[in-house]
Amino acid sequence: MERRTLRCLLPPTALGRIRDARPASAVPPPAAIPEAERVVSINGSIQVAGQRIQVGKVHARKLVSVALDEHTITVYDANTPIAAVPRRSTTNLNRTKAHHHITATG
What we know:
Blueprint: H1 12-15, E1 35-39, E2 45-48, E3 51-54, E4 63-68, E5 72-77, E6 80-86
């Protein structure tokens, strides 16, 4: 069975009088890449969207920003990429800001 769309049987002048009719909206802009901030743990790891990422003990207790692409997760420290790992989780991003306090040492 073949399906086809049917032609509109109303004349163009009658289309403006249809109840609750509205013109089509514009094409939505592309979705922005979700970004988040995380504080690196003492062990040198962070967790984003249910996936644990090891960035190194050198970055322990630093505030890093994370960009979640469809296939990769990229970790930045002051606009310098630290790590780019393949994204294995399908979980959405729940938290965007880091809530842990960074304590000054020494």
